Amino acid sequence: MTNTISRQKFLQYTASAGAAVLLSSLESFASERPDKKLRIAIIGCGSVSNRYIPHLQTSSLLEIVSLCDIKYDRALAQAKQYNLSVGTYPHIDKMLGGPPFDMMITITDMQVHGELNKIALNAGKHVWSEKPMANTYAEGKALLDLAKSKGLRIWGAPAVVNSPQFAFMSKCIQEGKLGRVASAHGQYGHTGPTWSAFFYEKGGGSMPDLGVYNMATLTGLLGPAKSVMAMLSIVNPERTVDDKGKIKVEAEDNAHLLLEHDNNVISHVMCGFNYFDPHGHEAKGQSLHSIQIYGDQGNLRLIGYDWETNGVYLDNSWTEPAKLYQQDSEGYQWQEGATKIGEALVKGIEPRINAEHALHVLEIIEGARKSSATGMKVKLQSKFKWPMIPPTPKGE
Ligand SMILES: NC(=O)c1ccc[n+]([C@@H]2O[C@H](COP(=O)([O-])OP(=O)(O)OC[C@H]3O[C@@H](n4cnc5c(N)ncnc54)[C@H](O)[C@@H]3O)[C@@H](O)[C@H]2O)c1
Fold first, then answer.
1. 270, 274, 276, 280 alpha-carbon torsion, rounded to 10°
2. Is the CB of 336 under 6 A from ligand 1?
3. Helix axes 49-57, 337-347, angle to 10 degrees
4. What does the pLDDT look like over 283-318, one tens digit per residue?
5. What residues does each domain of the chain span?
6. Which residues pair with 128 in a beta bridge?
7. What DSSP designation does 250 have?
8. 69 CB under 6 A from ligand 1?
9. Cross-strand pairs, 189
10. Which CATH superfamily is domain 4-159+337-353 in?
11. pTM of the predicted protein model
12. CA dihedral 135, 107, 205, 134 (to 10 degrees)
C-alpha cells in the first residue's frame, strides 16, 4: 500500500481549483530546492521525541538541523543520544535566529502548540504539529488560513489514516461489504502518563491525547460529524507526576462522545486515563477490538489500537466464521506522520493526512466540552475531503 497518491490522481480525485493551489505550495519546495533534503527543526525534546527522531532518521530525504526545548538540557541530551550534529536552543526565537530550516515539528506540551505553530508559520516555515494543532478550533482554523496565505503547509497528528488497516476498512465500507452502515465504536485508554502535568491541566485531557485517534479514525471512515453530544468527567482528581509532583486534575480524564454522521450513522468514542490495560502505554500485542463498525450485512473489528494496528476481522457471513485480514502493517508506524509529510513536501505530492481533518477533530473535542457543560447537542461546522481513500476507478 502506498500512503500517497500521484499528482494526476489527486487532481482527478479532487477536481478542484482550491486543491491545485494547495498542491502548488507543496510543489514549490520540490522545484525551488531540487535534490535537497528538507531541513527540520524539532521543538520539544521530551518523551515522544524518542519516537520521532529515530523515525525521521530513517528517511534519506530529511535532515534534522535544530533541536529546541525550554528545558535546554533535554535538547542537548537528545542531540547526544541520537548522534546529531545540530544546533540546540532553549527558545523558539533563538532557533529561528539559527541556521535556516524548512519545517518545524512541534512536540511540546499540548497547550503551547498553537502559539508555537503560529510563530513558525509567520517565520515562513512549514509545520507538522502533534495533536492538537491549537487549543481551539478557531485558533487552528486561523493557523491554516495563515499557512495558506503564505503558501505554506501545516499538518496535525495523528497519522492513523495512513495504516493499511484503515485503508482496508474504508474499502470494505465503500464497496458495501457491511451493507447499510449504522453504528461504530472506538475506545482508547490507559492509566495515564506519569511524566508531565500538562496532560491533566486545562487544555490537556484524555480527548486531545487519546480519544483524538478514535475520532480521526471514525470520521475518516464514516465521514465528517454533523453534531456531537458528550459526557466528560474527572474520575481521579489528584495525580502525582514527575515534573510537578502532586497536582490537581483539571481536564477530563474520562470521556464518552456520540457523533452524528451523514445517513443517520451514529458513532461512539470512549477514552480515559483510568482504564486498566495490561498492555500499557506502548500497547504492543494488544488484541482488543478497539474499533468496531456495524452494518446490516456485516461488521468490522480492528484488532489492536487504531494507531498500533494488528489486523481487521470482517464478519459478513451467516455460515462462515469471521475472517482476519490485513495483519501486516506494511511498515506503518504511528510516529510516521512527520516523516511522511516531510517526504511529501520534498516529492511534491499530496499526502493522505490533511489539516482540515485534524481541524474537524479539534472542533469535535471543543464541541464535546460544550455539550458536556451544557447538556446540549452541539452542531459542528467543519468538513474535510471525504472519502479519504480515493475510490478505486473501474478497470484498475
Ligand atoms: N509521549 C508519547 O508517547 C506521545 C505519543 C503520541 C503523541 N504525544 C504527544 O506529543 C506531545 C509531547 O508529549 P510528550 O509525552 O513528549 O511530553 P513531554 O512532557 O515528555 O515533552 C514535552 C517537552 O516540550 C518542552 N516544551 C514545553 N513548552 C515548550 C516551549 N514553549 N518551547 C520549547 N519546548 C517546550 C518541555 O520542556 C518538554 O521537554 C504531546 O502533544 C503529546 O500528546 C506523545
1. 90
2. no
3. 40
4. 666 778 899 999 999 999 999 999 999 999 999 999
5. 4-159+337-353, 161-332+360-379
6. 105, 155
7. -
8. yes
9. 272
10. NAD(P)-binding Rossmann-like Domain (3.40.50.720)
11. 0.92
12. 10
